[in-house]
Amino acid sequence: MGSVLLEREEALAAAARAGESARSGAGRWLVFGAAAGTGRTALLREVTEREAAGGAMRVLRADCSPEESGFPFALVRQLFPEDGEVPFADLPAAEEQMVFHRLVTRLARTADRRSLLLAVDDLHDADMASRRWLGYLARRLADLPVLLVLTECREKGTAVLPGATGTSVVLRPLGPEAVARLVSARGHGADRAELCIRACAGNPVLVHALLADLREGSLPRSLSELGGSRYRDAIVHWIRTRATPWSRRLSLALAVAGNGAALLGGALLHEAAGLCPDHRAASAGASALRRLFAHPLAREAALAAADPAELGALRSRIARLLDERGAPTADVAAQLLHLDRPGEEWMTQSLEDAAEDAVRGGRVDEATAFLRHALTAPLAPARRAGLTLRLGALELPHSADAGIRRLRAALELHADRRERAAVAPALGAALVARGRTDTAMRVMSQVGSAVDDGELDRVLQTTAAVMASHDAVAWRNAVARMRELAATAPAAVEPLAYGLVTEYEVGTGRLSAAEALGRVLPRLAAPVDPRLRDGWLGTAATLLQWADRLDEARALAEEALPASPALPDLTDIGRQCLISVRAEAALWAGDFRRVIAENAPLLAACAGQGIRMPHLVSMVALAHCELGNRAHARRLLAGLDEESAGSSWEWNELHCARAFLHMAEGNWQAALDDYLSCGRGQSARDFVSPVATPWRSGAALALVGLGQPARALDLAEEELRHARTWGTPRTVSRALRARAAAVGGRRGLESLSEAVAVLRTAPAPVELVETLLDLGRARIDAGNSRKGREDLHEAHALALRLLAPDPTGHPDAPDAPATGRLLRATGNALRASGARGTRRDTTGSAALTRAERRIVELAAQGQTNAQIGEVLHLARRTVETHLTHAYRKLGVTRRTQLASRLTGAGTAASSGARSLIASG
């Protein structure tokens, strides 16, 4: 038995019984009924060979076809090709009976000599006269040595023959085991077997066709990935030439409906196909077709066989049915995308709803496709403007210029001044994100000047003031307007206006954290104009973050920003601010993985598309640096083009972040240059407070590294004055650490002790680790090794806790390697101190104590022992003793050899410099 005849034992056994009966003189008929491709012809061939083997029976064969079905007696002429009296036309009933009698008589005479087997394939395509003759013959088979074997497609009708002389056998699709055997026989594995089981629905013809098409490599997801077209052609051929009208229409409906077929159900699919639910063949073929077209390969092949116009009408009807049954919006929209244009309002609404669902799922490409198609519909101007605005917002991160063009189009679509005023803030925010703050301010001014509504004008002015923070000159002017506005503004506008003034005054160093919070906290419960809500949240969250109320700042940000995987809307200037606050608050809290997980997707979407976001890049880069991925952090910062950078505060943050990396690498001069650039940028904005960018502390540490403690002390003292005005532990401790590095000795130890004391009351784990690290080293250098090691152990334990695997689950965030910055620094310090449980290196630069390293680096720069003692406030004899120990550990005998033997971190200032979170 051939492989295609798997699971056909019942049919073959029935044929054997009927053949034995016929050869004994009692003729029988046998009909094999099955769907197309189920192996009817192969089974007929096998039965014929078996029953006629050895000349046991003479075979007369006829193959019916649709082309011959219109010619009377066409089938009979195939069985009796030499009979010249077979008519070519329909006959009156009496004459037809005479022909039938003559043919059966001739058949009986032939069968007397040797039993006959009449094999008729595809009876459903036989002409009606021949079908009537076969019925006439079947009623007389009992006395004839004749076996009549027929095949037919059950979808096209069932032969009506007398049950006394024969039987019908229904051929079922192959089961999974049989298909697996076929696949295995062709040398394929289990994955191919599973594909054939699902994509062929037990149809042997399709199984063989698909096996012939499969090629090496991964399993195909579309027909184009197959190595041939036999599978597709088999389905196309059946749909176009062999399927009944009902089967054809139902197949196309199933292919079009796709995953929505289960929701629609049988009756609705029949309706979609233009058929009656109680069609006589429904129960016979629907289940098999459902199984076949549940697979995307089969659906794709079916669609290739359809007429485009027919498909369009079918898609429209199925889309409506899916919509009415509450199918997922994506399933409805997927049908509408294939229409030339959505012609009805419900279609446009479905596309818009599907776009929003896709946005929430992070599928922006899908969402933009839905909205673009919705815009092909005949729409009222206001409706078109609304869709255009939403599409522009989605396109902006992925193509800034395209998104801005779309937003400009939305603005121009509105003739009404109030409607234009509703679109202008989105366009302005997009322009700010593109780095074109000046253009954004012009747009806001032009639209605002045309508004004759006082309240709306104040809303636009306040929104423009938030945008103005990205330009130094515009920011000063905006704050002056906000001062005036805050005194007379409506209650719903006042919180943001006053908040912006407060933000400016904090930067100028006029306010303490307590005073700023006194302004912000009462207004959080006040009603705010919905158009200003996100801007107010952004300003309030910024002030809360600066005041070290990190959890509250993040809560405000999360109130307005979408949950992952959706990307935030950059056409809202307030949300732009909230994105920055959310990232920086997580960084300050030491949640480095969260910084990356929440913001890397947005940066990836914007990469190379015109939206630069230097502050967000800086936050992510610093998080990578903290996790030990310094090279990646460097690449992120290097990817920002500063040639067209303006006076936005974001670029000052970038300079601070870049200086941080330079410090981590011991490049003091480059770090100093970047810190001073940050300072100049902040001064241009009247921002002197260290609350955002502690550039003076960083510059002081770099100056200590360069051997200029006097300049460093000046900056550190200035920073400390501003920090004490603001009054938060984080800012004060940063300045104290910088001053400690500049003064060294007992005064430095006192500064570090104070810094640790104030940090223990603050949510500043990174600063606490860094300060404990410096304090421990300073105590060891001062001769108090026990207390110093306790500090180092505490710092190491805090670093371990800070960089432990994330228990809250950020699946997209990287792990912190063992070489994370804080773990590496605290571990090295413990080893250098000789603490128990650590191995202290006795040779090489890693074996140097903190004091030895500071002295060696100054000596390597060419300073004399006397100069070193003056810089570090040490006696000359102490300097000589430290150098003697360092020479032995480094294996050198001359000062000129020192520079080549130094590796890793440099001075005591270097550890503080690398520890400082230089961010805003």
TrEMBL record:
In terms of superkingdom, the source organism counts as Bacteria
HTH luxR-type domain: residues covered: 841-906
Q: Give the keywords, sorted.
A: ATP-binding, Nucleotide-binding
Alphabetical list of InterPro entries matching this protein: AAA_16, Sig_transdc_resp-reg_C-effctor, TPR-like_helical_dom_sf, Tscrpt_reg_LuxR_C, WH-like_DNA-bd_sf
Name the chain's protein: LuxR C-terminal-related transcriptional regulator
